[in-house]
Amino acid sequence: MAADAAHNDPAIWIYRHSHGAILNRAMALQSEGPRDRPLWGVPFAVKDNIDVAGIPTTAGCPGFAYTPQTDAPAVRRLFDAGALLIGKTNLDQFATGLVGTRSPYGVPRNVFDPTRVPGGSSSGSACAVAAGIVPFALGTDTAGSGRVPAAFGNIVGLKPTPGSVSARGMVPASRSIDTISVFARSVDEALLVQRLIASYDPLDPYARMPPFAHLRRGAMPPAARVGVGDVAALCDPAVRTAYHEAGAFFGAATTDIALLLEVARLLYQGPWVAERTSALRTVVTERPDILHPVTLGILESGLSRLTVDAFDAFHLLRQARRQAERIFVDYDALLLPAAPFCPSLAEVEADPLGPNIRLGTFTNFANLCGLAAFAVPMGLAPDGTPVGGVLLGPSWSEGRLAPLADAMHRRFAVTVGATGRALPPPLAPDELAAEETALFCIGAHMAGLPLNGQLTSLGGRFVREAVTRPEYRLFALGARPGMLRASDGAAIAGEVWALPTSAVGALLAQVPPPLGFGTVALDDGPCLGFLVESAGLAGAAEITHLGGWRAWIGTQSGG
């Protein structure tokens, strides 16, 4: 509460509990004790297009307001985890906008430069975290509303896999691609909140059942493959510089994202505008006077969209999704700027649509393509304002993206938001779960190598590097190694990956003979791993003396 008073920006809030109500709830939580609740007593905020029982939901439109009788499932799960609600936050009306200025409740102040936009639509939630008022807040993300304001506030924004968090109790923008999102001080804190709010909801028609436990945090792999787009010409100089440095940090390679950017341009110019209008058709046609003028203009344009154009857009989207699939065969993550620039309030006032459209350049396609993403700080511009980047991955990749995002955050930002406070310490990777099997990999399945996608597509996550006991010999079998137990062997280097136990058979089915799985003696104990049948080694070159497959690859490439 002290941070809120010190920051003194009433435009952050649409509804805020009184000091007395907050203290009473805090004392009640204290008297109850933790009860194993992971967010016991932790304050948070909720974007005001998400229902909290007994508090009006306005979606940034006073004439639309209603008072729900039940919490949105995501909010209820946070209450069950012991979290303490401070209030509901401001937004671009009906979550239509990326600037954060389209609200009758005022414009939350950009915490670094009051002459610039705060970013939207989740402006209030992002500013509340960036100012240190709450450690985390819920937002929503359709076109970038959970990522753009995070970038402008020097904080983390987690955009979950669409369908992984129940959308019940959320006022829809584009119902088929909306998701509740998380703003937090760090990647680990965002991932913790996501673990709590994520659940399959059979009452949500767009809910998706995860194929594996996707929110377990992996370790930073030794050879992550990160792709970047050829987008420098689309960005202001400060963003261009920061993006180049972040790409260099990962040793990133350029990949083709042309179709993704083309689909991004359709989000506010194609059939998904009509989907926004569909969600509010009665308001647009019967009560247009309650709408913000810019919001009204956007929603009215949806009434004239042609079905034939929609099918053109849907066909283009299928091509873009195929391009995304190909990208994530070759790369663990795609790195893009969160936004190409941060406009001033004056620019947006002079042109309410142009800057907003440009802000979605790198964000609009993500939900359309079903991707997961972390927005993380990527450095500071010469004028001291933050620049943000986004690491994107395929559906259900949040746990694998987390170590990359955390490494990038700690490389390019050392403080939280505009508070000057140090980042919370990083968390260790999750321990092996009961339903996971440790698998020792020695060849092309290791991080950054051609077959690693067979692991990650089944829910595999990197745990650690490891070596065997000095009891093995290693052979080159074309593009793969074969490891054989031998009394005159040596220690062989590899990696331990955690794989859902239910997926072990599916992986084994992709492994050709004479290779297979067996128990491997690591220097710290036994582990399931790749082995070879001795009968399949005829004519194979022995490479035991090199100590591992990566060393062998180095000899072949001249490295």
Strand order of the largest sheet: 1-3-2-4-6-5-10-11-9-7-8
Task: Note the main sheet.
Answer: 11 strands, mixed
Main structural class: alpha+beta
The count of helical stretches stands at 19
Distance between the termini: 57 Å
Helix content: 25-40%
DSSP strand count: 19
On the 0-100 scale, what is the average pLDDT?
Answer: 96
The amount of beta strand, in percent, is 15-25%
Q: Which word captures the global form? A: globular
* Radius of gyration, whole Å: 25 Å
Uncertain segments are none
TL;DR of this structure?
This protein has 559 residues and is of the alpha+beta class.
What is the fold's blueprint, element by element?
Elements: H1 2-7, E1 13-16, H2 19-32, E2 43-47, H3 73-80, E3 84-89, H4 123-130, E4 136-141, H5 148-153, E5 156-159, E6 179-184, H6 187-197, E7 226-228, H7 237-250, E8 253-254, H8 258-266, H9 271-279, H10 281-286, H11 293-301, H12 307-330, E9 333-337, H13 345-350, H14 354-359, H15 365-368, E10 372-380, E11 386-393, H16 398-412, E12 436-441, H17 452-456, E13 461-467, E14 472-477, E15 480-485, E16 493-500, H18 504-508, E17 515-522, E18 525-532, E19 541-542, H19 549-557
Parallel strand pairs: 2-3, 2-4, 7-8, 7-9, 12-18
Antiparallel strand pairs: 1-3, 4-6, 5-6, 5-10, 9-11, 10-11, 12-16, 13-16, 14-15, 14-19, 17-18
Helix pairs in contact: 8-12, 9-11
